[in-house]
Amino acid sequence: MADFGFLPCLGKPVMEFADRVLKCMDCGAEFVFTAGEQLFFHDKQFKNDPKHCKQCKAKRVRGGSRVRPETRTTCSQCGEPTTVPFKPTQGRPVLCRVCFKQQKTAVQPAQEANVKQDEDSNLLVESKPEAESMGDPIPEPS
Fold this sequence. Notes:
Number of helices: 3
Number of strands: 6
């Protein structure tokens, strides 16, 4: 008699799959990861289980807005309480909207001053401020 514990053509053991209940990363609802879906994931050699329920997956495909976790923190510059759409990492400053906009507008004119347009070739050439130069220029050979 044939041994039904192995696939006859491949000689590999047959995987047994059972329905599993998983939790959606977006909405937090529980959804069923069926045995058929698990077999599909196994056949395609996917390593990770699905992270989103079918409704949230469909919303992502349609281009629905993604729900981001809001983190409450204090602004590193002004000290006001604020919320940010990411988890802050230690050692990096976190700015509120007002301070972020102020910093962004202060950086843009400085960047624009460093970029000059070469009139002859219409190429953008970036010039570095004197403070960033690497020291004395190398003298040209005589």
